[in-house]
Design goal:
With 358 residues, the chain is of the alpha/beta class. It contains 10 helices and 10 strands. 40% of the residues lie in helices and 18% in strands. The strands form 2 sheets. It has a 5-stranded mixed beta sheet with strand order 3-2-1-4-5, with helices on both faces.
Length: 358
């Protein structure tokens, strides 16, 4: 990389020559997200969701996802530039999701990001998708201060993490089987609520009677901060088989399931806050959009004199803004990728390091 004469000094903390502006590219699953984040904050953000295409199959089809990212990436980048009235010459770096995620989908974004950065002679940086999620609340006007406890609840992850600063992550607990979002999706499927399951189940639960069924709160009666959600899905299946599955029963099961997930997460978050002595909770990832989860967590935090922070609704699920933000932090510290391309479909968050000037 050294042979390239980067417009790179701009991202060195000690030699700021021009305002730092980073293009962020997210393509780890079924959303193509593009954003521009700079010293003025977030200046543009575009998203294309493949949901309609995958709905026909009841879930994400990896090969279709990769092909669609290839089709959408460049047009969305052009649109993002046009929205912000900037061009490639204004950029100082490209950030992209390097993992975890679907390998083909990741490679689509990585190839475009790395090629553009090479052509534009600017550095690029691979971002951890879950670091993007957990830093997403930083994009809000009222952002949390470090240290905080982060609850990451997405389709692939349910984790409690102690965050001391950007890049310093200590795993406190995680799901031993299904992630919370996965449990939402599978339960929605067995209730025949369609895809994507989480929002569909949440909508259905609004009409549910909270008193008709009571689901267990898994792993809450023993110490520790790990989770297990696969039993709740089985509980929903058994309940649906023991009752006539009409619309009201669906709603009642959905409500009981949602309450059980929200309560379980709140019990573990409370434990994590008490254990760490931290009074700031950050909740991020697709399931953080869930209204019942938010109200349950807010209530728990009030009782503890703690405060909960969430991303705005559209940044709970996958988006380019969180990748641009996380990449900006790392580029600002002088980090950048070597020339070889690497996707990391599996990548533990705890392997990340605090950004350091290279
Ligand atoms: O973070 P995300 O967009 O993708 C991953 O990184 O996995 O999260 C997607 C997950 C899906 O499982 C989806 O059903 C769930 O988030 N989700 C929700 C809601 N919105 C999205 N779950 C419950 N309630 C919601 N409102
Ligand atoms: Zn995600």
């Amino acid at each position: 990389m050294r042979s390239l004469n980067y417009r790179y000094s701009c991202v060195n903390k000690n030699m700021t020559k021009q305002p730092l502006l980073v293009l962020g590219i997210e393509s780890s699953c079924d959303e193509t997200g593009i954003a521009l984040f700079g010293e003025q904050g977030l200046i543009a953000d575009t998203l294309y969701s493949q949901v309609k295409m995958h709905a026909e199959y009841g879930g994400v089809v990896p090969e279709l996802a990769s092909r669609d990212h290839v089709r959408k990436l460049l047009p969305l980048i052009k649109q993002c530039f046009a929205d912000a009235n900037v061009s490639a010459k204004d950029l100082s770096g490209v950030a992209y999701t390097a993992g975890p995620g679907l390998v083909g989908a990741l490679f689509a974004g990585i190839s475009v990001a790395r090629s553009l950065a090479y052509g534009w002679r600017i550095p690029s940086i691979g971002v951890h998708h879950m670091e993007g999620h957990l830093l997403a609340p930083m994009l809000e006007e009222k952002a949390p201060n470090f240290p905080f406890v982060a609850l990451l609840v997405s389709g692939g992850h349910t984790q409690l993490i102690k965050v001391s600063q950007v890049g310093r992550y200590e795993l406190l607990g995680e799901s031993l089987d299904d992630a919370a979002g996965e449990a939402f999706d599978k339960t929605a499927k067995l209730l025949e609520l369609g895809y994507p399951g989480g929002p569909a189940l949440a909508k259905c639960a609004e009409q549910g009677d909270p008193k008709r069924f009571t689901f267990p709160r898994p792993m809450t009666n023993r110490p520790g901060l790990d989770f297990s959600f696969s039993g709740l899905k089985t509980f929903a299946l058994t309940t649906s088989q023991q009752n006539t599955l009409d619309q009201q029963t669906r709603a009642d099961i959905a409500r009981a399931f949602e309450d059980a997930v929200a309560d379980t997460l709140a019990i573990k978050c409370k434990r994590a806050l008490k254990q760490t002595g931290i009074n700031t909770l950050v909740v991020a990832g697709g399931v953080s959009a869930n209204k019942r989860l938010r109200s349950t967590l807010n209530e728990m935090c009030e009782g503890l004199n703690a405060q909960a922070f969430y991303p705005r609704h559209e940044f709970c699920t996958d988006n380019g803004a969180m990748i641009a933000y996380a990449g900006y932090q790392r580029l600002l510290a002088g980090e950048h990728d070597p020339l070889h391309i690497k996707a990391r479909p599996r990548w533990p968050l705890s392997e990340l390091k605090t950004p350091q000037s290279s």
